[in-house]
Write a structure and sequence with these properties.
This protein is α/β, with parallel strands linked by helices. It has two domains: 180 residues, Glycogen Phosphorylase B (Rossmann fold), CATH 3.40.50.2000; 177 residues, Glycogen Phosphorylase B (Rossmann fold). It is built from 18 helices and 13 strands.
Length: 423
Amino acid sequence: MIKLIFDATVVTNFFKMNSARSGIFFAAYNILNTLMERTDIDVYLYISPDKFVEAKKLKKIVYPNAKFVLDLNKHNFLTTMNLFFWEKHSKYFSHTFFRKFFAIGIVFSQKILCFLAKREFQMDVFQNADVFFSPAFEIPKIVRKNSNLLACALLYDATPFLFKGYNVGGFNAINKLLKSSRTGDFFFFDSNSAKNDFEKNFPNIFDNNSAVVHLAANKVFKINKNVQSQNEIKKKYNIPNGKKYIFSLCTLEPRKNLVRIAKTFVAFAQKNNLHDIVLVLGGGHWDDFKKIIEKEIEGFKSYSDLIIKAGYIDDDDLPILYSHAEWFVYTSQYEGFGLPPLEAMQCGCPVITSNNSSLPEVVGDAGIMIDWDSDEQHIEAYEKYYFNEKLRKENSQKGLERAKIFSWEKTVDKMVEVLKKRL
């Protein structure tokens, strides 16, 4: 049996109903859960000491039976203070002076907890474990002190190195991880495309110390054509009754191409004089996006009712939104994998994606693939789906079949197979 320490620090975002629950969070969360279901892997959870409070909450609510390498039964007084005092009493700190006091209090108590927590690692677990796996961050120093551990990391995309000038945090994190890597470390990538991009930028990554493990969509993503559910979701996200909608889900990063998606949708509706369909946008910062798109689309106010701000979408609502959409559009400039198109396909929703990076690995021939930077191809793709119900149904079925190729069990099977060969 392999004794594996899993860095679950990013999984503490479980309680944050915002953009912190990104694709990386869901990948880490699903891989962890799948690993814990196996009988040939003994899993221990590592969480960075500065997330001591969140770790206690995670153990209490999500993983009550899990084994942690931090002794989470210690320092209950300070933990209680953080959880109940700082969180429950924040409303009383409205004045600027008290807000500063509030912020200093949080930082100070977290620093104390972090310092104390570092002393509560169960060192025998590190000394006797076989593998340390990080799904998001660099390998901690405590792992480096135990040379017996095979250190592994999962890398998602090379965005910070391909698109200079933004996502500085991502650049620093990945750069730090890879430059601090040691001989014997192993790297997993979520697509062949991502692996190739990293190999071009880092000479310490090659075939002998890396492997591709495609990600997957959660099993909750399945067809839900319930009319009552559709009506409730439409009301919740302000989608007009009696109107069809297309769906897009992404952040406002420039590479996500959201401005072009919206601009070309308006052009498509104008060209064909359509009033029965809207574009629903999930995620992103609406106020910032609105300012950008008003500059891009002449007379935008006259067409603003065609674009519906949905904002953050609750997990339980996503399968319903995918299932009832006419199609899903995700024409990113670059993706390491691209979970949303796979989620949409698994719900039977036809997809439009760009034809670059990892997206062909995910979508294959199950959707319409276009150049990310072509307005004309966007409009043509919208028209193909809108005016051709047969094509929508064909690609819906193709997507369902294509999605069966991917599962978290297959992802973890491949990872464990690789680890067993390395140990």
